[in-house]
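Aim 2 progress update. The chain analyzed this quarter is reproduced below.
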Amino acid sequence: MQRFLILFAFLFCFGLNAQITKEIFESFKLQERRDVSYYFPEEYDKEKKHPLIVVLDADYLFEQVVATAKFYSNFHGMPESIIVGIHQSEDSIRFDDCAFDEDTGLPSEKGGKFFEFLGMEIIPYLDLTYNTAPFKMVVGYDITANFQNYWLLKDNPIFDAYINISPSLAPDMEKHVPTRLEAINQQIFYQLIVEGEKSKNTSKIKAMNNAIKVIDKESLHYFYDEYQNADHISIVTYGIGKAFDNVFGMFKPISPKEYKTQILTSDEPVFNYLENKYKTIENLFGIKKPVDLNDVMAIYAGTRKKEDVESLKPLSDLCKAEFPGTMLGFYFEGEYYEQLGEPKKALRTFEKAFGMDEIDFLTKEMALEKIDALKADFGY
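Predicted structure tokens:
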């Protein structure tokens, strides 16, 4: 596949000082050169898949999105992502990029070319060059927030998540967006971030919110956040973190609230919650997330609290695969046999655990105590 671009001034290297790079991208669709910035995770691994985040109005939003993504990924609140920022401030080119027909509300001729530039050049280039995950997100503000909605008008939108910051809506967009969100079958995250200050767009945004929030379908994840103290300028600094929290909430480790309200109250086996959580992450983001030790401990605590013996066996099998060389899997398996009333199997399994590495709260002393207790109880 032919590449219509010229790399300029920077090489893509992933050392300590090269997390963010900037290039001049020569677009065949636009017949012009455009400034584009890229962020790559500090521990970029070409063997791992990374979600792609496209940031319009990069001069205003790129650094904030990068900072938020770094913070959330460092603390396990989202997968490490590749971020591309499209610069649009020079000569107010954003108004040409995102211009629309006042009658139809659809992109103007230049807007159509900009739409193709992103969808047919920038994104395919990154997909071909880097190990991107299927999950893609777009972030925009004001007129660029409106522009991202045009992807929803396509049969198979290329973006899975849309972060709209105070959109300046095109004619009838408040009707088109709810209609399309109701019709689209794929998983969609749609976030509206608006200021409390009234504007000419307020009534249309309110109408769009009212129409979207009544849509009842599992594949639509809709969030609306209004910040009363913000105006149209300051709203840019509000809500991006909350939006990331909403979109990537499933990716975070199990919280105490989640444990109390979802695991302990469920009638299903405790292990099912962990299994379903990681299947959902893989289905949503196209990423196979390594099992978090925090999540294992939450499920283990749940098995004890609910006396769910049967969940210990699949949990032990999972731990053997995810934490090889540690006591975790064999210790849980030993408890499983112990609670089933199979002391010989329990004893052998705890002996295996004793010979492996300690992890978290599990120590060799704990395994030895189990071994000694079984020998004393059953005369081994």
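The longest strand covers residues 132-141. The longest helix spans residues 109-129. These observations will guide the mutagenesis experiments scheduled for the next reporting period.
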